Amino acid sequence: MDTGDTAWILISASLVLFMVPGLALFYGGMSRSKNMLNMLMMNMVCLGIVPIFWYVIGYSLSSTGENAWIGTFDNAFLSGINITGEDGGAGLRDVFFALTFASITPALISGAVADRLKFSAWLVFVPVWMLFVFTPAWAWVFRPGVGFLAERGGLDFAGGTVVHVAAGAASLAFVMALGKRRGWPNESMQPHNLPFTMLGAGILWFGWFGFNAGSAFAADGVAVQAFANTFMAAAAAMLAWLLVEKMIDGHATSLGAASGIVAGLVGITPGAGFMGVNGAIGVGIAAGALCALAVRMKFKFGYDDALDVVGVHMVGGLVGGILIGFFASPATLGAGDGFEAGIIEGGGAGLLIEQIIGNVMVGVYSFVVTFLIVKVIDGTIGLRVDEEQELTGLDTSLHAETAYN
Q: Which CATH architecture has domain 3-399?
């Protein structure tokens, strides 16, 4: 176990963990003041549920075995993974790095269902969704030479498919089953604290360097390239979002700047370690512009995605994943035959086709299974708070607290 690599991966894991409270502030500021604490709780409780799930069964089913579709129970309760083995603890290190990714993924979904979901339903949903959606998706994509999408040659450097497309598609299914907030879209439901949202976006940008550059699993040139790509894609996406906003609405907003940053970060995640800076800027521009347009679709199609998880994470993840087929650059990364070049560098359409197949399959699978999970929960303990609780606010009615005195 290389000590320099290990130091970087442990720091990266810490950065990814810090993204969860950053996401909570980002979402919380976009919520109404009466639901601020509920949004913080929905995010932070994922740091309680998911680590236990990952320890008991999540890691083993997602990352072990030779079955193309799902792992084994061999490492349940992290059996056999310790610091006394031949790898000196590298396996244990990597388990907990992956755990931070697992922890933030269901938290992303919380933004879509803001203002009307029972907290008890959320507590049930998170581990069930992790078991039936996130764990298989990880097994398909992140087991080189084993997972069926990885074996086909699809690329996902840091979780664009497994994290963002899966969570975004799940969010769409969830809100379709859950229904609209009372009063939406006729009643104004403006963000109550945009400074919190901007702060959250800054924390997410900071943490995302661990998310993407840490996924190199080494303190090496690929990590440096992923770091640079993460920086530039977010910058380009923010400017692209603001330009679209200015052209359509006549003004650029702080919410647009924060959302553009996150759209760029989402977009570059799957390809951060597969392209150069030019490609990253292209991805950022595309993600920023397309996500700025996509968040408006909820009004046209009538699904109440409260905090634009579908428009930013599903669309941004799809854009970034598919554009790998254009911008992938083995020459830039010194990867040799490690992955195929994109169309712009003379590669064929094969990689692009695989990127489309992988992203669509994970998205459709996540949508269908999430819809079934949510319907079962609704038929048993119920999904929505009652009308009085929703109008009063979830902070008071569910948590007996208020964010502001």
A: Orthogonal Bundle (1.10)
